[in-house]
Each structure stands twice: as structure tokens, then as C-alpha cells.
Write a structure and sequence with these properties.
There is one protein chain. The chain is α/β, with parallel strands linked by helices and 219 residues long. It has a single domain, classed as Vaccinia Virus protein VP39 (Rossmann fold), CATH 3.40.50.150. The protein contains eight helices and nine strands. It starts with a helix and ends with a strand. 34% of the residues are buried. The mean pLDDT is 93.
Length: 219
Amino acid sequence: MDPDFWHERWQRKQTGFHQTEINPLLEAFWPRCADSVAPPRVFVPLCGKSLDMVWLRDRGHAVLGSELSPIAVSEFFRENGMSADQQALNEEFVCYENGGIRLLCGNFFGLTPELVGEIGAVYDRAALVAMPPGMQERYVDQLLRLLPGRPPMLIVTLEYDPEEMSGPPFPVPEETVARLFGSTYRIELLSARDTLESNAPLRAKGLNRLTEKAYLLHT
């Protein structure tokens, strides 16, 4: 999607995708993804101002997030009672950092492996579903380029009838997950739950079915 779309959403505070509680799938399944004895550094692409990053940090992880909107980044630190140190990394990216959380503000597709560094696990709740079907392959190609070590990933997706609603969020059916990641990872479906009743905004858009799924990707 055009970056201006997301900048406008944050400027107009049209951020219904932001969750005000920790995602229960993260709490339930993260131990399957990451070592709790030696917590690895975690990458959270298209992180917004997700509270999930605080949850990860509080469990001993160093957290690296990537986010397009400086509004989202600033609100994340302010709402969590932190003042962030800022550093321009290049013409495109500014780094905000404090409390074990480092956010790279800029276009995800401009990231390089050098900017990201070594990553031990990935948590994607909002990135893949934010991509239209025509961009999902490009997103995954970039993600894999940034992560040559092929760390395990916990990915959360949504499934619904695309004729009932145009995203975002966009549907990512199981066959798409298999097509995008199957040549690189083993894919394990951890959970599939009906979340339509708890999602009034998407019901209001006309959805009759909404399934949230969690996958563990590992080599």
C-alpha cells in the first residue's frame, strides 16, 4: 500500500487496528517460538505502537521494531512512560530507543540486513495482514532478505471472504502462508479461532466470518 495511506491513518487517528491489550495468541504460543532461558533478540515488523513489544521486553527480549509512522513511534514511547533517544541512521531511517526497545522509523522496504542486525525470533501480528495480496510476496521476500539466519517466527493472520470487505486488514488463507513460506520454513498451525463476535468494527463492514490463526514457522 502507498505509505501516504498509513501516514494519513495515523494523522487522523484511524487506528482501529491497534490493540489495547496483549494479544492472547502471543501469550499462549510465544514459548513455542523463543528460548526463555536465553531470550533472543526479537524483530517486530510494522509494529505500530503495539503493547506486545512491552510484553516481549518484560520477558527478557531485546526488541527491534520497524514502523513507518513517526506518530506511532512517538506515541508508543510516550504512552508507555518512556522518553526515547533519537538518532538519524541515514536519510530514510531514524532510530528511537529506550528500555530495551529499539524502533526504526522509516519504510520497511528500505531496511537492510545491516540496519536490522542479528535476530533470533520474529513476531508478526500486523505486518502480513496489512499487505494487499499483490504485495504479500514482496513483503515476505524482503523479510527473508533481512533475516539470513532464518529465525523462528510466530505469525498471526486473518481469514475472511474478500468479497465481503476490502482490507486492510487483508485475508491471508492457509494456502497463501504455505506458498509464501513453504520453501523456506516448516509451517505449524497452532490455533484457529472465530473472532467475529469480538471484532465489532469488522462486523460493521459486513463480515459474516472472521478466523484468526497463529502459525509457528521454523526450519
